[in-house]
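Dear Dr. V.,

Thank you for agreeing to look over these. As mentioned in my earlier message, I'm a first-year student in the group and I'm still getting used to reading structure tokens, so any feedback on how I've presented them would be very welcome. I ran two proteins. I've put each sequence directly above its structure. The first is here:
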Amino acid sequence: MGIFTPTALLTSLILLFLNATIINAGVIKALPPAKGNNNIPLPSSTLAGPSPDLKLRHVVLGLGHQNYTCSSSDASATPELGGALATLYDATSVLGVAIQRFGNVRATKLAGEASCATDAQNKVGGFLPELGKHYFTAEGVPSFDLYNGDGKPYFSAQKLATVDAPSDACKGRDGGKAVGWLQLKDDGTDRNRGGLTMAYRVQTVGGAADAKGLCQGKKPGEWVTRDYSAYYYFYGN
């Protein structure tokens, strides 16, 4: 059994329908922002935490694909990361209200062990309001367009640090191991708006191109996609 984290708690609360006032399908989209989003802790890792002056602005569930390219059709060729494409779902209110309502310990006991399989995460996404998209630009810049958020925030990112996912992290539906956890900062360009300055990719499921033979029969430059999900924590002033 892996460590039960707040984001796993979110999955369990929704999947198990523990409390209709929080996760009823007719109510969830109308939840107001949780009071004091900063009561939601960033999942623990060796990544440096956000500076004290930054506030948690959004917690989102990303569901999509990590995209890789093949340099040759040889079975031994290693796919190279070329980007990602994911739909982002707003989990801030649900996660904040769940922690406020139950507290971490009580909610954990109620929820039991969470399933972190990608298909279970997809069910969660079906209950959460869509907040935006994550993609890489033509220049290879990881970008987050939160077009349904207040002020339509846009986060144009650059990677600060990465750590391996926990050893017990779940594989994706296609068998790929979990991609690493990331710390990102805004890249300082005028593409950024909405005051987001720092983000973390955590609680990853799948996404790695670690299987043998993924490029076999592929043309040079052809894409290989791997299912993944992750939670993204966005911070700003």
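The second protein is here, in the same arrangement:
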Amino acid sequence: MSSASFYPPSASTQPSERTYPTTDKLVGKWYITHTTSPAWKDKRNVVLTYTALPSASNTVRPQLDDLITYQTLGSQKLQTMRGTDTPSPFHLGSWTWRGNGWLKFVTSQWEIVAHEGGPTDGEDDRWMVVFAQKSIFTPAVLNIYTNGKIGLEDGRLDELRMALKGLGNEELGGLADGLYRVTQE
């Protein structure tokens, strides 16, 4: 994990010289392979697809269309949830998700707290850890997104947990202990 970057949530520290994946590195398909969210306990094949939306200015980071597809454990039917992610003007790694359609009134603040993978890394080697703050509808959660369906190997996952706990943020450390694997077929 030598090329991985780890950061405590921005609410607990001022983001200084941090580097985050650029929007073009976020665009595409990500598998949610590990999470602490109770919402995914009875789900499988949870996939997040980011698509950049047209920007009014080339100096503003674009919003992202956020499509989540999944299946319940006992069904073949593909379910979807869609929203729009708006980048924070104050913190490069933070975003606000707002649901579309009947979820339009639902928002969530999320940020990248760890990531690995760059322009020379293989697509299946890229991953990021996303911390979503507690909202009216959900507890605070950690999600691990990977570009490969298999996700992180157990040893690498243990290293990641230790690194997250080592950031000195109690909430993040507690969430790291609660990560469970999401079934990907």
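From my reading of the second output: The first strand starts at residue 5 and ends at 6. Residues 46 and 70 are 4 Å apart (CA to CA). Does that match how you would interpret it?

Kind regards,
E.
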